[in-house]
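EI: anyone free to look at a 150-residue chain?
SC: sure, send it
EI:
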Amino acid sequence: MGEENGQFTSVFCGCFLKDSDLTMKKQRQKGFALVLVITAMAIIGLEMYVLTGGSNTMLFQSDTAYLEACKRNLITSGLAWAKRNIRNNSRETFEKAVELDVSEMNIRDSSLVVTIRGLPTDKAPQAQINVSCSRSRRTFRADDKYKIRL
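SC: here you go
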């Protein structure tokens, strides 16, 4: 009877230990999966942070390029207007600051002011051009004098 109890006990203990090992392995596997998911979420969050910083830089650079192009277009338009008025000898526009309408250029929050200096008989008349253009919270301004070649 001692042997049977011994065998029975060993069989019983073996089953109990097997079940507990299985239970422990399942718990370890569930814990491993949880750690794996948390790690993956942390890596994805870090990648999103890095990519967001890169996209903000690209947005800043594209805004800068847009504003530079608008500024150049406004300056060129002002120079063309000044040259045409000097050639047409329009004396009423000389020595006066004239704000030109730039609404048809589809540049929001922009302004263009041209002042022609020097008489048309002078060899080198000048145009003072003041330009301003904005996009979101950034504004570009340019105030320069240009010689007009006829």
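EI: The mean pLDDT is 81.
SC: 👍
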